[in-house]
């Protein structure tokens, strides 16, 4: 067997050996390329999602990691330069083709993990269609956006960070994760607080229907000044454990 569980780094021969050995579960991150304030790179959600799925894949057992879908539905961030946003139907089409190929190769469980808020609803709609099309394959995803936000904010709260500071976008939580995963990408000298206030479904729907600047002209929800790599390491581990338990319930 090859080192690591990412199929993109394997040969077809390696993947066939894994499938023959019962590795019939594939886990896929669905990220984005979008603004994350003046201090985090556009690739933040994709980096966090890919590393989260790496941990989930290891913890699940008998699972492989599929190539990350790097672009997502980010129209609510288009007011900031560099953001690339897919039309929801485009993202669905990518997911449809992805599943068609992996189903053909013999994967029995195909699991999508979104790491960007704009992808959750689109992914849920795509999975409903796909499950009807491929009834013998288990196609699932964690698509409860506000549960995801609540859980990750709680992890920050457990570390003494107020949920308003943890934030839902480029705040303490995501900045801590990036300090742990890719410190060299983080512009620490640009840390500034963004929107510090309640962020629930009402605020989330406002941002998704309009754009994030209605809450923050910096593109930040939360306070990155309270971030640290040590907290980021804990968040990655706890989020992976949470996701594994959710996946086991769905499977």
| Count of beta strands | 4
Form type: globular
Number of helices: 9
Q: How much helix is in the residues?
A: 40-55%
The low-confidence runs, each spanning 5 or more residues with pLDDT under 50, are: none
Task: Please state the CA-atom Rg, rounded to the nearest Å.
Answer: 18 Å
Strand count, sense and closure of the main sheet? 4 strands, parallel
How far the N terminus sits from the C terminus, by CA atoms, comes to 26 Å
- Classified in CATH, the superfamily is Creatininase
Strand order of the largest sheet: 2-1-3-4
What is the CATH architecture annotation? Answer: 3-Layer(aba) Sandwich
How much is the average pLDDT? Answer: 97
| CATH uppermost class | Alpha Beta
Question: In the CATH scheme, what's the topology name?
Answer: Rossmann fold
SSE class? alpha/beta
Order of helices and strands: HEHEHEHEHHHHH
Strand content: 5-15%
Tell me the number of structural domains.
1
Description:
- This protein is of the alpha/beta class.
- It has a single domain, classed as 3-Layer(aba) Sandwich (Rossmann fold).
- It is built from 9 helices and 4 strands.
- It has helices at 12-20, 44-60, 88-105, 120-133, 145-158, 163-166, 172-181, 201-209, 229-250, and strands spanning 25-30, 63-65, 109-114, 138-141.
- The chain has a 4-stranded parallel beta sheet with strand order 2-1-3-4, sandwiched between helices.
- α4 links the parallel β3 and β4.
- α2 (44-60) crosses α9 (229-250), α5 (145-158) crosses α9 and α7 crosses α9 (229-250).
- It is globular and about 50 Å long.
């Amino acid at each position: 067997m090859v080192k690591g569980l990412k199929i993109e780094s394997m040969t077809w021969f390696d993947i066939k050996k894994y499938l023959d050995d019962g590795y019939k579960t594939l886990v896929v991150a669905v990220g984005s390329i979008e603004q994350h304030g003046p201090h985090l790179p556009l690739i933040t959600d994709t980096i966090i999602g890919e590393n989260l799925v790496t941990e989930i894949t290891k913890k699940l057992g008998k699972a492989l990691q599929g190539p990350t879908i790097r672009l997502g539905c980010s129209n609510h961030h288009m007011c900031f330069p560099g953001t690339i946003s897919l039309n929801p139907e485009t993202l669905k089409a990518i997911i449809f083709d992805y599943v068609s190929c992996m189903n053909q190769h013999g994967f029995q469980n195909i699991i999508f993990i979104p790491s960007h808020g704009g992808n959750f609803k689109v992914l849920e709609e795509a999975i409903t269609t796909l499950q009807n099309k491929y009834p013998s394959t288990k196609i699932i995803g964690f698509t409860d956006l506000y549960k995801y936000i609540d859980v990750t904010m709680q992890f920050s709260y457990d570390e003494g960070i107020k949920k308003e500071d943890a934030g839902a976008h480029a705040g303490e939580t995501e900045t801590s994760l990036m300090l742990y995963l890719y410190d060299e990408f983080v512009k620490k000298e640009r840390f500034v607080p963004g929107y510090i206030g309640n962020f629930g479904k009402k605020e989330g729907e406002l941002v998704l229907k309009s754009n994030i600047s209605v809450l923050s002209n910096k593109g930040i929800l939360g306070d990155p000044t309270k971030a640290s790599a040590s907290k980021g390491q804990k968040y990655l581990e706890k989020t992976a454990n949470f996701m594994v338990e959710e996946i086991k319930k769905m499977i």
